[in-house]
Every structure is written in structure tokens, then in C-alpha cells.
Amino acid sequence: MGRLLVFILMVLNGLTVNLEAEEKVWLKGNIHTHTFWSDGNEFPEMIASWYKQKGYDFLALSDHNILSKGEKWMPIAQLQSRGGSDVVDKYRKAFGDQWVVTRGSDEKLEVRLRTLEEFRKGLEKDGSFLMIQSEEISDRSEGVPVHMNATNIQEVIAPVGGATVREAMANNLRAVAEQARRTGKPIILHLNHPNFGYAVTAEDLAAVVQERYVEIYNGHPGVNVLGDSEHASVESIWDIANTIRLSQLDAPPLFGVGTDDSHHYHGRGTSRPGRSWIMVRGDKLDADAITTSISQGDFYSSSGVTLSEVSFDSKKKKLALTIEPKEGVTYSTRFIGTRKTADLSSKFKKSAAGKVVTRIYSEDVGATLATVEGLNPVYQLQGDELYVRAVVTSTQPHVDPTLPEQTEQAWTQPVGWSISTRNRR
Ligand SMILES: [Zn+2]
Ligand SMILES: [Zn+2]
Predict the structure, then answer these.
(1) Predicted model pTM
(2) DSSP label of 51
(3) Do 254 and 393 fall within a single domain?
């Protein structure tokens, strides 16, 4: 009805409108990517072109502690040792000699990296692709990496540090919040790969309640997505942290982000692009709008499964998905959550090396509440859930797996949760 009304009003005003542009669609993007600006092995505009050609709508290049800004020259030897002997030739071929800025010659040759401001124009000019500025704030505390991606950041932020992992997280969150306030821009700061170096426990993640986003799948094969005999998987960490927040801290749960964390772009190397992304509901390719949708949890994460619909009816307490089918593929959806009546006790745990790791909880935490086959899974909440989320697993093998027997999946955000008004942000 609303749409019809819009249409009639537009016709009366004699305007030509594209109604499609008014509707919300799913925008596909990767918000964790590395380039020659830090430790990636390809020129940024080559990488962005790859994503654009693959049908992505937006991309954030998130190099370590640097923006694609200012003057950065790289010696040919360094470019080739990382990207292969033909890396500059491929770059020239794709963008033309005019575009490639060099100085010196032969083994003294250097190439200037183009800035985001320079290369985004060409990529964005047909209106089908958007670059979002980002930085991987790459901090350390207690001897482990604390990496956080600042999507839609406006100015570089040096890692703030902190005496503990939790303090480092909180300090970087504060710095980003301060920049967001000062610039009036929405900025998302998500915690990357909690199990990289087994740096961040579920209890850490729960405690720093200002953090609202965590990577639940990261395509880098070195980030221990599944954990090991001593450490919880990342998905389990997500459920434990959300359970602690909602049952003990009266704090909102974390949203789950899927990313590539790609470094290697020449068909070799281990951390390649195209493994995981987010689908954000939006009506325009605009960095502020996309960032705002993410902040509202209006997105899901995928490693191959596409959802045409994710809806939560808060009155009827029903979570419903519509899965876009692929021929010959079947889908199984697990609805995962923790009931308020669950056994929430836990046991302290240390690794064999004496390091504090995520505590041990009962199987009630992040339990599978229902498993539904088919393209239209629905879950009716019983009223005793702290939250519910869905993970769809298909029978289609993943396009470039990092996990054993990995098939394509999609993860939706926790719904059905509530906190008291005073803690809402
Ligand atoms: Zn990282
Ligand atoms: Zn990274």
C-alpha cells in the first residue's frame, strides 16, 4: 500500500522515478581486505576491480594502521617478492601505462600507490560500486593481537593500547566513538578474528559491552575459526558472550560479521578473496547509510548461501527466512539460542600453557533449539529464549574452503532479545 501511494504521488508530480531505487535490497560487501598499503600482495585498485567484477556492491580496504592516503612509494623488488615477477605488468595491462606512476628505472624502479581518493572515482563512476574507507586498527595487549576494523573511518587512528585485552578494546572503541562524534559520521568498529593467537575469550568479548560486532567467520586460514581441544570455536564464543550479556549484564548482544581478511590475490598464497561477506539491507550505495544499517543489525553474513528474506516479527515472535535455491542443493537451518532456564554455570579453564581461555559451559548455552529443512525455515519463539539466531548450512561445497568438508553457510543476527531501557543505545 505504501509503495502504491508513493507511485501515484510521483506520477501526479510528473516525476520519472525508478521505483526499484526506493526499495530496500541486499547489498553485498566485504569489509576486511588488505592491499600493498600494508601486508597484502596486490595494488588496491586491482583488488577492488576483482570484487566489483564478482558482483559485490561495496568494499572496504582495511590495511593495518594506515589509510590509502598520502604518498607511498614501493620498490619494485618488494612488489615482486610479494606479488610475483609480473605484478606490475598485470597492473599496467589492467589500468594502462598512463595510470601507473613510477620513478627511477630497472632495479631502482619504484611505484607510487594510488590513493583511495584517486582510484575510487573510476570504480564508482557507473554507480554500481562503492568504496568505504577503513582501517584495521592492529593493537596488542598481554602479548596477543587485538585487531579491530573501523568501517567508514574518516581519519587514521593509531592503536591506543591498554594494560589488558579488554582495556585495549575499550580504548580503541572510545577513540572511534570520539571520532564519530566529532565528524558526525557513523563508524563501525568490529572485533576481528577473536581466535587469532587465541587472543580474546568469550568473557572478554562479553565484558566490553560497547563492542557490538565480532567476526564469526573470517576467510584467513590462520585464525582458528573452529578452535581446538583447548579453545572454543568462534561461533561458540559468540553464543557464550551473548548469553553472558543478556543474562548477567543487561547489555545488547553482538552482531556476527563474515569477512575475507584477504591478503593474497594471485591464485596462490593462503588468504584469498571471495570466501565470506555481509549482505546489508539498504536502498542506496552510500557509506553512511550502509554503516547505519550494519549498526542496526540489518544484515546477515554468508559464505555462499543467499537469503532473499530475513524477517523477525516481534509481535508474533517469529523468525522466518527465505533461502534462494541453487539447483541440486539442499539446506538445513539450525535455530540457535540460550533459554533463560538454561544451566548458565561455568568452570574456569586454563590452556596447558597456563593461559586463561574461554570457560566451559553446559550445552544449554548456544543450544540448537530446532533444525528445519527446506527453503522457508521458521522458528516460533517460546518466550523463554534469551535470543535466537539462525545458521543455514547447504550441501554445496564452499568455493574456496578453509575448514574441513566446509559447505556454504549463512548466519543471521540474534533476535528476540531484550534489555532494560536504560541500557539501550
Ligand atoms: Zn587482523
Ligand atoms: Zn586483517
Answers:
(1) 0.94
(2) H
(3) yes
pLDDT in tens, 206-262: 999 999 999 999 999 999 999 999 999 999 999 999 999 999 999 999 999 999 999
Distance between CA 253 and CA 244 in Å, rounded?
A: 9
The CA–CA distances, whole Å, from 224 to 41, 218, 351 equal 22, 9, 15
* 310-326 pLDDT per residue, tens: 999 999 999 999 999 99
- Cα–ligand 2 centroid distance for 218 (angstroms): 9
The environment of the single-atom ion ligand 2, i.e. residues with CB closer than 5 A, is: 136, 261
Q: Which ligand is closest in space to the CA of residue 134?
A: 2
* CB distance 290 to 257 below 8 Å: no
Q: How far apart are CA 4 and CA 6, in angstroms?
A: 5
Phi, psi of 10 (to 5 degrees): -65, -40
Q: Which CATH number is 137's domain given?
A: 3.20.20.140
The verdict on residue 82 lying in a domain is yes
Which ligand is nearest the CA of 197, by number? 1
Ligand nearest to the CA of 139: 1
Question: 366: which residues sit within 8 A by CB, 6+ positions away?
Answer: 235, 236, 238, 239, 240, 243, 336, 337, 338
Residue 400 gets which letter from DSSP? S
Neighbours of 384 (CB within 10 A): 11
* Helix runs in 28-164, H state only: 44-53, 76-83, 87-95, 116-124
Q: Is 50's pLDDT higher than 70?
A: yes
- In one-letter notation, the amino acid at residue 61 is L
Shared-domain flag, residues 134 and 210: yes
Three-state DSSP at 79 gives helix
Number of domains in the chain: 2
Identify the nearest ligand to the CA of 219 by its number. Answer: 2
Grid coordinates given for 21 = 531505487
Task: Please give the residue range of the domain that contains residue 45.
Answer: 23-72+113-423
pLDDT in tens, 2-42: 343 343 333 433 333 444 445 899 999 999 999 999 999 99
Q: Is residue 2 part of a domain?
A: no
Instruction: Verify that 249 and 184 share a domain, yes or no.
Output: yes
